[in-house]
Amino acid sequence: MSIQVEQFVRTRQADWQELSRLIDAGQRSMPQLTPDEVQALSRLYRAATSDLALAQRDFPNHRATVYLNQLVARGHALIYREEPLALGRLRRFVTTGFPAAFRQTLPFFLAAALLFFGPALLTGALAAWQPEAGRWILPLAAQEMIPLIEQQDLWTEIAVEDRPYASSFIAQNNIRVAFLAFAGGILAGIPTVLVLISNGLMLGGITGLAIHYGIAFDLWTFVIGHGVLELSVICIAGGSGLMLGWAIVHPGWLSRRDALALAAQRAVRLIIGCVPLLLLAGMIEGFISPNEAIPWPVKWAIGLLSGLLLYTYLLLAGRRAAPAGSQHLPTLERQVAVDHRAG
Prior knowledge:
Strand content: under 5%
Order of helices and strands: HHHHHHHHHHHHH
Helix content: over 70%
Shape: elongated
């Protein structure tokens, strides 16, 4: 038995030492591992687990078995550890993860924008030409606005002391609409389509009536500051819901469960990124949009500049290649799983 153990250790010791070195390096700084080292770590860890199983069967009380057990435990802790919630992880999400997820799902965003702005443009033109149509175009929740518009009056004045509460309420309402558009994707995207169309009808109907009664500029001077961010986020959330619905309706080569899981990973990243944008839009709507002391060119400039910055960020941020090796780190656990299946 002693000869068998010594031969086993002598044959496998070099791989164990290399695995130990890679584990030490990974514990010091995972981003410094090269792609080849990541693959070697996966391969050697899998081999060490097999060695441990053999050692526990044939010589469970030997010191080599104890060493292997410790080595495999260290490897498992490194490979399957959760990435710490730190500023670095948040920074990577902001600079790369969120805009990359947006670009990956751009066709769904465009489809959501079409479902939202298509009805808005059509109903806006119809209500501006034939205001009576606004009474049956507008959703029930917006019907109370019609008498105010007919009197050439706006409902946009918010008292200074009420603006902090209004900002909080507006942000909560916008987040609710965004989550409704997102969550509707679970039901094959049908509720998402309805949310987008109904909000488009409301926006278009109100704008069309405002055009007819000559207060459209005043209305959009209030809306523009926060509206570009707000409407963009609603379309992003709607696109996320459509992506979930498409995964259910058309999973392709994947099972519906796998297609939905893959779509949900991207959709959740988008929704998380939308929340701070909606909070910012709510702050603008609560503090800047109703402030009569701010001249209209400033409000328009805020809205247009916020839109320019948003889409520049979404379309261009994070396009630079990640540092060598770092792009492989999130897939280390996946690499081990692939190696296990291959073995």
